[in-house]
Amino acid sequence: MSRPHIEKEHWDEKNKKVRKSHPNAVRLNNLITKRITETGGKLIEMDASDKNVSVKAIRKRIINKGNDFFTIAEDYLKNLERLEKYNQLSAEKPRVAHFKEFLKCKKFPIEQIDVPLLKGFQSYLKAEREICDRTIVNHLIVIRTIYNSAIKEGIIDNKNYPFGKDKIQIKFPESIKIGLTQDEVLAIEQLELDPSSKEWYTRNVWLLSFYLAGIRVADVLEMKWKDVQEGRLRYQMNKNQKVVSLKIPEKALTIFSYYEPYKVLNGGYIFPELKGVDEKDSKAVLAVIRNANKKLNKYLKRIAKLAKINKNVTMHI
């Protein structure tokens, strides 16, 4: 909607109103009075809820600019990209897209997100998209994060905040992890596999992760020979950047020995997936790891079948 434009000769600067010479002076002055009253009310409301309100927040609240949830979400996702949090970005971008699909609109006022709407979204994810409870919670976390950022930016207040006690509570369901028995691990270890096969290679990657306390596939594939010192593995976890030091079991040392002759060929990595990839390019590294993980899981299914294991064996140990 376009804003009314007042020519200079029709504006009374001293009294801050439209002169009678303007044909719509009465209507415009009434509109100005209304806006001033609304602004005063919003300022009082903001002052009551937060004594440290920034000028930026006041301006956004008064003109109600940028209250579209998906515009705010886009800024949030762009910030993840700027921070090179590509793993998080790749997970959360589809969750925002699912919310847009549920709402069936390109724009949606963030203040209209309430408990009934979010409960409907939960039902949609479970019934229509057949998404598990844990992943549904992850969807809600993204919405809550974006909502919180809107509050912080002064786009919306927390008066109708839909999360918390007696509202939408973020709580992960207890997960039942079906691990392998000692006999099943032994069956995998004792499989006779061709050393030139993908299955043999996959088993080595999986067993190394298993022997090293179930370290994540990304950490296994990013492992370098310089991380192996004096019988210990020292590395920085991808998930939380925590530095870890693990004693390397004999069985893991045996697997390391298979790849030591290829130390230079693999660019200093234990396994070859990341050789030639710019390790500073987080996006490229993530893409390679995700693709490798997909392939490894495919061959693990074959390994499980060969070992007569009726469980879902994956790199997520």
Number of domains: 3
Shape: elongated
The helix tally amounts to 11
Strand order of the largest sheet: 3-4-5
- N→C terminal distance: 56 Å
Share of helical residues: 40-55%
The portion of residues forming beta strands comes to 5-15%
Q: What Rg do the Cα atoms give? A: 29 Å
Summarize the helix and strand pattern as letters: EEHHHHHHHHHEEEHH
Oligomeric form: single chain
Residue windows where pLDDT falls under 50 for at least 5 positions: none
Short summary of the structure?
The mean pLDDT is 87.
What does this 3D model show about the protein?
The protein is mainly α and 317 residues long. The chain has three domains: 44 residues, no CATH class; 85 residues, Orthogonal Bundle (DNA polymerase, domain 1), CATH 1.10.150; 126 residues, no CATH class. 51% of the residues lie in helices and 5% in strands. It has eleven helices and five strands, in the order ββαααααααααβββαα. A three-stranded antiparallel sheet has the order 3-4-5, with no helix packed on it. A two-stranded antiparallel sheet has the order 1-2. A hairpin with a 2-residue loop joins β3 and β4. α3 runs antiparallel to α4. The longest helix has 25 residues. It is elongated.
Which helices and strands occur, and which strands form pairs?
Blueprint (H helix, E strand, L loop, with lengths): L10 E2 L4 E2 L6 H25 L5 H9 L5 H14 L3 H18 L11 H13 L5 H20 L29 H8 L8 H14 L5 H5 L6 E2 L2 E5 L6 E5 L2 H10 L22 H25 L11
Antiparallel strand pairs: 1-2, 3-4, 4-5
